[in-house]
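Sequence design from tokenized structure. All designs in this work follow the same two-part layout: the structure record, then the generated sequence. An example of the structure record is given first.
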């Protein structure tokens, strides 16, 4: 079995210039936890997840040994609102991107997702364009439908 047998081909992507505000709308309206970031040619340049957003929006510790947070009542909302205009390129994962090709083996994809604790992997063709996404949920559904049910 190959990745192409399990991948989602209706891929939702964002551009590096997308704001976090717009990204949040994409994630919540599609009920997903992350998306590939692509350039104008559809080539993979990064990944951004709900975890990346939360890490960026979380209050940063200051003071001795980072044990003190200075946030006054109502201030956290203001800080988050200001950060919503930040572009995805400033919070996305850019280095050591892991991806699969449609012809990769199913077994390799499972090992990659589990070894790196990723929730999803972009599926990239030979030209570097994102043509699909493979998530842990997709694999679980595929295992259930194609392997257990047969």
């Amino acid at each position: 079995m190959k990745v192409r047998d399990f991948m989602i081909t209706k891929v939702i992507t964002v551009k590096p210039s997308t704001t976090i505000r717009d990204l949040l709308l994409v994630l919540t309206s599609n009920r997903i936890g992350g998306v590939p970031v692509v350039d104008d040619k559809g080539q993979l340049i990064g990944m951004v997840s709900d975890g990346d957003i939360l890490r960026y929006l979380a209050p940063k510790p200051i003071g001795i040994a980072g044990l003190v947070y200075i946030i006054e009542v109502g201030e956290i909302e203001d800080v988050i609102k200001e950060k919503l205009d930040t572009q995805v390129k400033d919070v996305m994962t850019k280095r050591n991107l892991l991806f699969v090709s449609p012809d990769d083996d199913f077994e390799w994809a499972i090992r990659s997702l589990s070894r790196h604790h990723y929730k999803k992997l972009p599926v990239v063709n030979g030209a570097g364009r994102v043509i699909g996404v493979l998530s842990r949920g997709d694999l679980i559904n595929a295992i259930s439908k194609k392997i257990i049910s047969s």
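The helical segments are 20-30, 50-57, 75-83, 106-116, 136-148. We note this feature because it recurs in several other targets discussed in the main text.
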